[in-house]
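G., the chain you wanted modeled:
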Amino acid sequence: MSTADGDRGRRSAPLLVACALRIEQVALRSAGRGAGHGSTGGHVLLRTGMGPRAAERALGRALERPGMDRAAVLATGFCAGLVPGMHPGDLVVAEETRDPQGIVTCTGSALLAEALARAAPGRTVHRGALTGSDHVVRGQERAQLRATGAIAVDMESAATLWTASRGGGRPVAAVRVIVDAPEHELVRIGTVRGGISAFRVLRAVLPAFHEWHRSLLLPRR
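Predicted structure as C-alpha cells:
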C-alpha cells in the first residue's frame, strides 16, 4: 500500500464506540444526536451487553461488517475506581487494559486525556492501567487489584480491546467514568447521586472521543 493509499484508508476509517449497559447507551445517544454515522464527525455506537464474553462476541460481529475492517475502537461506560480519593464522575483514561488474555496498549492516551479535560472541565482525569473482571468488584478484592498497579476496573473494556487488537494495527482506547470508588461503594446511600453524576459526565465527553478519532486521521509525516 502506498502512503497516499494509507492516508485515504485512515481518513475513511470509522469510529466504533462500545458500551455494555443500556443506561450508558442512552447517555451516548443523547449526546450524539445529529452526528452522522460513517463521517469523521460521527461514530458507530455498539451496545455489547454485560461481561467480557458478551463484549467479545458483540465486537467480533461488529468488526465483520462491511467497512469496519479499519475501524478505531473505543470502549467506554462506567467503572469502579481503585485508588483512594477518587470520586463518582471522575474520568479514567486507560494507558493499557489487562485481563487473563493479556495486555493491550492503548493509542493516544495523553491526547485523549487532554481532550476529556476540555470536554468536562472541573472533572479529574486519571491515567493508568484499567483491569478487567468477570464480576462486580468490592471490598478487599478492590485493594488486591490496586496492588497490581491498576487504577480502575470494569467488566468489558479489556475484552473489547483484546478482541479489537487481534486484527493488528487498529487504534484502540478505553475511557471510563467512575461510578463508585473506595470511599463511595455501590452499596452505600450515595450511589444514586454518584450514578447521576457519572451519567452526566459520560454524556458530556463524546466530543473528546471525536477529537481523538480525528487526530488518528491526520496524514502521517
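The two ends are 16 Å apart (CA to CA).

Shout if anything looks off.
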